[in-house]
Amino acid sequence: MNLQRITKHHFIQLFAGLTLTCATHLAAQESPYADGFPPPAPSPLAPKIGLVRNSQGLLFRSEKSYQESPAHVQNHLDTVYLPRMREHYPDQDATVIKLASRPSADGLETHENLVYARWGDRAMVLDLYLPSENEELLPLVIFVHGGGWIRTSHRDYRPAAMALAKRGFATATVEYRLAGEAMFPAAIYDVKAAIRWLRAHAKKYHLDPNRFGITGGSAGGNIAVLTAETFGDSRFEGPANHLDRSSEIQCVVSIYGAMGFTAKSWTDSEPGSHLRNETLPDFHIANGAHLPPILFLNEWDRREDRRWGVDTMDIIKKIGKKDLAELTSLNAPHGFILFSPHQALALDHLERFFGKHLGQTSE
Which helix or strand (DSSP H or E) is residue 88 part of? Predict the structure, then answer.
């Protein structure tokens, strides 16, 4: 091919081919972590997480730490989200966009700050929302928050989880250890522990243990997909409670999740290293990982950035599982699950996908 005639389209095709080839090659390499990972340690590159001890001697995130999270989200809205709206979506009224507020709990049964696991003195919590007065077993959708693996909290996803619960699903938003407290794979251990805890308590909360879905945004999308696709890989289960229960997920939605890259702060390792590769959903899919039905819900303005699911779709097609995957985009920038009115549009996609693969009530 004449280099002077290479178009942008050709570059994208070449880059996709190289990425897929590299992913497949890496998948074939023997990992030094075949027998498990080192104990998670705090990242020297990430902010420390404030913890406080309660009267029972258990450690929880401090309220100050939680309060820092919405301030960070608001800053993202003001400095990133709204400028991108004005640049890429001039036909939309940016003046009506705001941080999504917690909806009324009318019609919901709420259970917040439930302890699902303990790591020594550290207690991990989740929030659970159920449609009230429902006698049928409910499908569950688990939300995993973003924040670059180093910031924000599960409380930021309460509005989205409550709003989806009002549409007929049980929902949960799960706290996990950020890199400043414990690096990879601590977050995966945590989310899987939450899944097992929820299955162990399914009867109490009228959950259908055979219909669990998961979703997450950005870093949370990465964690959600890793959680789903590493089912059956004992290295990712972690030494937590309810190990007699399954951590299997029936379907997953990645909301602008990082599929082909992660931050050094999550592993303290370089791109291309064996440990960093273990954090990449693309690496595991190319290596024949478990793959439930998956939807990639991305931002329209970054549709040509292939690292958020486009390359993943190519890998899935190459391994012959294209019928399991969907990719679509929302006319909004990165972070749309957090902001009104875009949150409601994103929930429309989640309701359709989870309704298709989980249903909404059990006969």
Answer: helix 82-88
